[in-house]
Amino acid sequence: MEVLTMKITMDSVRAIRGEWSLSARGTFSEGVHLISGNIGSGKSTLALLLSGLFSSFSGSIDMEGVTSVMVSFQFPESHITGLTLEEECTSWGLDPFTVLSSVKLYGKKELNPLKLSRGELKRLNLACVLGGQYDLLILDEPFSSLDVQEKERVCHDLSLRKKGITIIITHEQTLFPRVDHLWEIQNCELRYLGGMPEALGAWRHAPGIIKNLMAAGRTPCNISPEDLLEAACRT
Amino acid sequence: MQDVRLRIGAAIVLSLAAFLSITGAFLVFIWWLVFTKRLQILKQFRLMVPLIVLMAFFSAIVELTGGGGLSYFFRMLVIVLIGMWVYQEQQSKEFLELAVWMFGDGAGFELGLLAEMGMQSLNLLVADFDRIRIAEKLKGIFWGVGSIVPTGLILVHGALSRADAAADILAVRGYHNGGTLCPEFRTTGTDIIGSLAAAGIFIITFLPVSEFFILYR
Questions:
Q1: How many folded domains does chain A comprise?
Q2: Between chains, do A79 and B136 touch, taking CB under 8 Å as contact?
């Protein structure tokens, strides 16, 4: 049986929002892609564009082998369609007990999702998003509103995703999962920096710790906390 | 129409004219064709759909039970078009300026603030509705009758939460009642012509047709 390779090819894409525009070209292959950029650089627009929810653009976006797409928006309220946490889980086609227990919210299953704190809601939303199987998974600022423990848990859950294309769009500077490819938005343009660890040298938005390790000649193999620790302790 | 005073005045008289007779509704429709940015209004057509469906339902009942349903539907449709025109032309702060101009810094300011918050809430409801539709699309939920109640409840809950937050913010910032504002209005030639035409339609609607032909008797 032939196995289809998944990839997304952007050819001279230009997303337009009034006076502002974002240019993008390149190919997203299977694996985990990290896109970093400053606040207001067009990261959320890119998330909408890649998920097919933004139509004001020129150029072409070709998807090969991608049959299911999911995008997790920065604000978890954007996903709510259920009146209770239980209904919200069901609306994702997931078992409420499994999902709510995993994020320690089962005791609040009858509560209106909008009554949760932003952090709790983000936790629930990510559990629902990561609970499904999608060929293309786009996570727009998945770490916002989360504490360190939850960020670590999300990184762990992301590492369990072995198939498909995962695109993480963030300005996070502390915790990352292990990624395969690095991209950056700079001056209204999406640039592909390369695979790991070669791309690290060109990464302008790299967190201070990575820049310091590179300056000391200790290039980490990847950007997860374990990789950074290994590089820092390398003798 | 840039002057909110003339726009609201025209909208009131045109709505009355359209409601009172089919002739009035027809004349108001012509006024709408001449004096509004029709294409921009029709781009917001999806906002009108629920109202049109509701009107069609009641018009069908009226038509089946005693007749006159078609006339009712047309008259109400024209009123909705006028309402959409007011909504589309509305600019931030206009209702506040209008209310202060009409009723002063006390009650006027309160009423204007209420109207501004109402309009803001309406815009946010539209944004919320779009958001829910996208979320449902992503989850693979088919939009149907079953979605209406939960969507409505989410919208109402969101609106109430925002109203709560707005009240808290006003209280925290020390708002008690009333305020001062110097309203500014800009009246153009088109505003005056449009208003005069609206007033003309209103008068014609109230006068029997025979009055126009009195000279010919």
A1: 2
A2: no
